[in-house]
Amino acid sequence: MKLTVVINAAPSSQAAWSAYQFTRTALDAGHEIYRLFFYADGVLNSNALSVAPQGEFDLVQAWQTLIAEHGLDAISCVSSSLKRGILDSQESARYERSGTSLGKGMTLSGLGQLVDATLVSDRVVSFGA
Which residues are catalytic? Predict the structure, then answer.
């Protein structure tokens, strides 16, 4: 089954943790993840500058590792990301900022990517409000 996973919740939430566990389990079961789409506060899962408190699971790093290991298409909504200070090199230059914060393996893009994923996937599963 071809799945798209939409993550709307910050990495500190149960919803983001559940999305990660669901994605891992789906991959282990042989399902295809067509796209991960981080939206609203969910884009905080794509912030490479995030640091988990000592002794806590680093969900942001876990997402980056999962994306790299499986070559997943991971989109961080550009408008939600910019609003929360998550920039790639192109947006950093565009807005004359001094650095980048988008996680490895992730791409900034718009809602068109979510529409495309909805049309192509067998199921779209959303986590968070």
Answer: 77
